[in-house]
Structures are given as structure tokens and as C-alpha cells.
Design goal:
single chain, 11 helices, about 80% helix
């Protein structure tokens, strides 16, 4: 998987797009911004309503209700963002395959809303389990250092949280192409999607990491423009990863054929040895 080839293919896909890439990206970014603004507004409203009680018991009960409301609102808006991002992944796939797309491609995740939500939850649970397993030795070491007064409590917690975040970041590359697999085969179960994503990405995790690093300057420049530059650059980034997914599929098919050929050769040798 050549990084320069992927980027050149992505540029050609954006130039020859059969639809408006800038308008689709702008609508997606505006939708994300409106959802974030609505979540912030509802959270602020819930906190103000909790602080308006005159008595302590009423204030505590109102505060607990506001916290529950804030958590519920956050979950709802997070699920809406997941569905919206699934629609943008579908847009990236069509863009990489030179297929026609319109604005309703962003609603693709809402048409199959159960699968994207379940996939997100499944991946989150897997990442948390991996983080717990790999953080146990580190937690023992850090706890021993804390009990021996080698480090403070704040340093211990900071190091532990940083280690857990690093583990979750590394593990995320196992399931990196799961969203493309989902949109390619929405009829598949979540377990099948996860298994295929791991198999497709088995030998390309380091290449994906290097590809991510190559986009860091663009992301920094987009942050300096308050995200305005994303209208032009986000389709290019998304198409690059969609082309990477296509190359991974081709490589996975080649590896599968090789395994089938080796298995057929071993079976033939076994048959020949049986007669002798």
C-alpha cells in the first residue's frame, strides 16, 4: 500500500467527483456544529434549572435530575453524531469509487441506524477490555511507586490515564476499517464486521499509522483556520482512507487465495502419501 499512490488516487477522485464534495462536507460540518451547540445549550439549561431551588433537598434532587438529563442528552447527541459520521463514510466510499452521490448520502447511517450504534458500542467495549487487561501491570507498578512515595497521587493518575489512552489508541487500529466494512455489507452481523475488519487490516496497521502522521500538518492548518479549510480538505482525507480500504481488500483477497492454494497443496500431498 503506497502512501503517495493513495493520495494521488484520492486527489483524482475529488477532481472527478460526481457530486458536490464541498457542499456535502459543509452540510456535515454544520450538522456537527449544530448538534454540539444544541447539546451545550441543553446542558446549560439543565444546570440553571438545578440551581434555582431554594431548599437544599430540592436543590440536591434537582441537581441529580439535571445530571441524569445531561447524560441522556449527551448519549442521544453522540448517537446522532455516530450516524452522521457513518453517512460521511458512505460518501467517502462513493467518492473513491467514482459513484454518483447527492446530499442524502449523509443519511445513510440513519437508514441502518441499529448497526452503526451497535458497532460503535461493540468497538468501545473491546477497546475498554484491552485497556483494562494491559493497564493492570502498569497499575501495579504505579501503585507500588506511589506507596513508596516515589511519585505523587496526581502523577500516578496522570501516568495511568496516559498509558490507558495509549493502549486504546493502539488497539483502535485493529478495528479501523470496520465502518467501511459495515457500509459495504450492512446485512452482516457486528461480529462478522469486526472479524473482517481485523483480517483486512492485519498487515497494514503501521502503514495506517504513518498515513495518519502524514495528515497531521493538514489538520493543524485546518485548526488554525477554525475548521474552514476542512470544507476543501476533508473530502481528500476521507477519500484517501477509502482508497486505502480498497487496497486492503485487494491485498486480503490475494492472501486468501494464497492460503487456499497452500491448503490445496497440503491436501494433495496428504493424498499422495496415503497411497505410499
Amino acid at each position: 500500500m503506497d502512501r503517495r499512490q493513495l493520495k494521488n488516487e484520492a486527489k483524482q477522485s475529488v477532481r472527478g467527483a460526481r457530486g458536490s464534495t464541498k457542499l456535502t462536507t459543509l452540510v456535515c460540518l454544520l450538522a456537527v456544529g449544530l448538534l454540539a451547540l444544541a447539546e451545550w445549550g441543553l446542558t446549560l439549561l439543565a444546570e440553571r434549572s438545578a440551581g434555582g431551588s431554594q431548599y437544599l433537598s430540592q436543590a440536591l434532587s434537582a441537581q441529580s435530575r439535571s445530571y441524569a438529563l445531561v447524560m441522556l442528552v449527551s448519549l442521544v447527541f453522540q448517537f446522532l453524531l455516530i450516524l452522521l459520521f457513518a453517512g460521511y463514510f458512505s460518501f467517502a466510499l462513493r467518492l473513491s469509487r467514482n459513484e454518483f452521490f447527492s446530499m442524502d448520502v449523509l443519511l445513510e447511517g440513519f437508514r441502518i441506524w441499529q448497526k452503526p450504534v451497535l458497532l460503535y458500542l461493540y468497538i468501545s467495549v473491546l477497546q475498554a477490555l484491552w485497556a483494562i487487561v494491559f493497564s493492570m501491570p502498569a497499575s501495579y507498578v504505579l501503585t507500588a511507586l506511589f506507596l513508596s512515595d516515589a511519585i505523587s497521587e496526581s502523577v500516578m493518575l496522570t501516568l495511568l490515564m496516559g498509558y490507558v489512552s495509549l493502549v486504546m489508541f493502539i488497539v483502535s487500529y485493529r478495528y479501523r476499517m470496520a465502518w467501511f466494512v459495515l457500509l459495504d455489507g450492512p446485512e452482516k452481523s457486528v461480529r462478522q464486521i469486526i472479524s473482517e475488519a481485523k483480517a483486512i487490516n492485519q498487515t497494514h496497521r503501521w502503514q495506517l499509522f504513518v498515513l495518519d502522521l502524514s495528515f497531521v500538518p493538514w489538520l493543524l492548518l485546518c485548526s488554525l483556520t477554525c475548521g474552514v479549510l476542512l470544507i476543501w480538505k476533508l473530502p481528500y482525507l476521507a477519500a484517501t482512507y477509502a482508497h486505502a480500504y480498497r487496497h486492503m481488500l485487494d491485498d486480503y483477497a490475494i492472501r486468501q487465495r494464497r492460503m487456499e492454494e497452500l491448503l490445496a497443496e497440503q491436501q494433495e500431498r496428504f493424498r499422495q502419501n496415503r497411497f505410499f
